[in-house]
Design goal:
about 100 residues; alpha+beta; 2 domains; two-stranded antiparallel ribbon
Length: about 100
């Protein structure tokens, strides 16, 4: 499993501590260091965390991709999967509504 660390940066901690000058300061996404196994992901746009008492914590990270290389076989397999999923959904809907 990956180790996720989310820490408030020192500069943001100082702004929060200095309430006289920054009384309405609310930390922003950029005020945090976010590390995955000690590495900072580039072009990170959002982080979603979920916790429940029956499983391990989950994290979903969104990031921008500035260079994307995809194998043609992968695209063919992905297209087939999407088509199969659509067919399955249509069949399930037919069974549900028409018995």
């Amino acid at each position: 499993m990956a180790k996720l660390e989310i820490r408030l940066k020192e500069e943001a901690k100082k702004k929060i501590a200095d309430k006289k000058r920054h009384s309405m300061y609310v930390p922003k996404f950029s005020d945090y260091d976010i590390l995955i196994d000690g590495h900072e992901p580039q072009l990170l746009t959002s982080v979603e965390l979920s916790f429940d008492n029956e499983s391990f914590p989950h994290a979903k990270l969104s990031f921008l991709v500035d260079d994307l290389k995809v194998d043609g076989e992968f695209l063919t397999a992905l297209k087939a999967k999407i088509e199969d999923d659509k067919k399955s959904e249509i069949e399930a809907a037919k069974r549900h509504y028409f018995g």
